[in-house]
Structure formats: structure tokens, C-alpha cells
From TrEMBL:
This is LuxR family transcriptional regulator. Signal peptide: none annotated. Gene3D superfamilies: 3.40.50.2300. It comes from Noviherbaspirillum autotrophicum. Residues 2-118 form the Response regulatory domain.
């Protein structure tokens, strides 16, 4: 597995790298201290995950995230940021981040986040997973075994939704027509009892729903 760590602070990059190596010793790691160098690496290597800081020196705010999703739509991006207020987290999700890890997270929480991501699950800070993050009905939508009535195709569509892909790109990726994607999206939101794609991502994180790695 190839993982790119992007942060302008070497100490942060090294800390994340050490934890990843402890969890996934065989992983190949790349590091970058700017958006420009990170995009060069991503274009040259088959990167599986990107751990991306917000407010990089050459691309402040969410610009770096937008550039990554624009140029590498299928590349999962994990935002690692000192900004962890609800608005920042939700904005990152809306722009296609697969996960959000606060820099304030201790080593155990960071480890849990990395393990979840490498296992095909989603990780979000507890502030977003609170009881008011989703419609109340969503809490009871799993059956007694904790599973969900999603078909394999719906799980594939949901995995691509989590990556921030629009319906047109999901259709292209799965080799189906866009109208079929819309039907699947409606069914997924209905099953998870949520009203938006962002809420679907939150539900996936809260309930530990494992999705295929596409």
C-alpha cells in the first residue's frame, strides 16, 4: 500500500509515518511539504491514500483538497488538521475527504483512525459523530446483527460517494448508466435514513460500516 503524507511540519509527517509503519509495516510512504510537490508525487505514483493538511503554505484553506479531488477523483483523501470545528469538518466532507483526523488526537485515536482507514472504514472526530449529527431515525436503522440491507452494488456506490465522486463519475467507474446510479443513491440514503451524502458518510463512520476498496 502506497501512502502520501502532506504537511509543512516535518514533525507531524514523521509522527504519522511512524504510526502507519507500526500498523502497516509493508506500506510504502511518501512525504511532501507543499501541495505542488504532493500533486507531483500523486501523478507519478499509484498512491492509495493521502493524508493531507489544510492550510499548506502554497495552497491555503481547502484549495489543496479541491485540487486533489479534481485531479485524482478516486484517490481517498484523509484531512489531518489543527482546525477541527464542525464547520471545517463538514466542509472537508462535502469536498470529498474520506476522513478527518484532528491533530489534537492522541496516539491511540490516531492509531484507531489509521486502522479504520486501512480496513476500508471511515473515521471522523467524535464531535461529528454526536447524537445531533444525524436524524434520530438513523440510530435504529441497523438490524439486530448490526448489518445493513445494502446490496453489493449499493456498497460499491456508497464507497464512491464517500470518495466524493458525483453520479456521472460513479456511473463511469462502475460501467453503469447515471440513472441507475441515482436509483442506488436514493436507496442508500433511504436505508441509512439520512438526507444527504455528507450524512451518509457520517453514518458509515458512526456505525463502522465496512465498504469495498475500489
Amino acid at each position: 500500500m502506497k501512502i502520501l503524507i502532506v504537511d509543512d511540519h516535518a514533525l507531524i509527517r514523521e509522527g504519522i509515518a511512524i504510526m502507519i509503519k507500526r500498523i502497516q509495516p509493508q506500506s510504502e510512504l511518501w512525504q511532501a511539504n507543499s501541495c505542488a510537490s504532493a500533486l507531483e508525487i500523486a501523478a507519478a505514483e499509484a498512491i492509495d491514500f493521502v493524508f493531507l493538511d489544510l492550510n499548506l503554505p502554497d495552497q491555503p484553506g481547502f484549495v489543496a483538497l479541491e485540487l486533489f479531488k479534481e485531479r485524482h477523483a478516486l484517490m481517498p483523501v484523509v484531512v489531518v488538521s489543527a482546525q477541527e470545528d464542525r464547520n471545517t469538518v463538514l466542509k472537508a466532507l462535502e469536498l470529498g475527504a474520506k476522513a478527518f483526523v484532528p491533530k489534537s488526537a492522541d496516539s491511540e485515536r490516531m492509531r484507531s483512525a489509521i486502522e479504520a482507514l486501512l480496513d476500508g472504514r471511515v473515521y471522523l472526530p467524535e464531535s461529528i459523530l454526536g447524537t445531533d449529527a444525524l436524524p434520530h431515525a438513523a440510530a435504529g436503522s441497523a438490524d439486530a446483527s448490526g448489518t445493513w440491507s445494502l446490496t453489493e452494488r449499493q456498497k460499491e456506490v456508497l464507497a464512491l460517494i464517500i470518495m466524493g465522486l458525483p453520479n456521472k463519475l460513479i456511473a463511469r467507474r462502475l460501467n453503469i448508466v447515471e440513472s441507475t446510479v441515482k436509483i442506488h443513491v436514493s436507496a442508500i440514503l433511504r436505508e441509512l435514513k439520512v438526507a444527504s451524502r455528507t450524512q451518509a458518510l457520517i453514518a458509515v463512520a458512526r456505525y463502522g460500516i465496512k465498504l469495498p476498496m475500489l
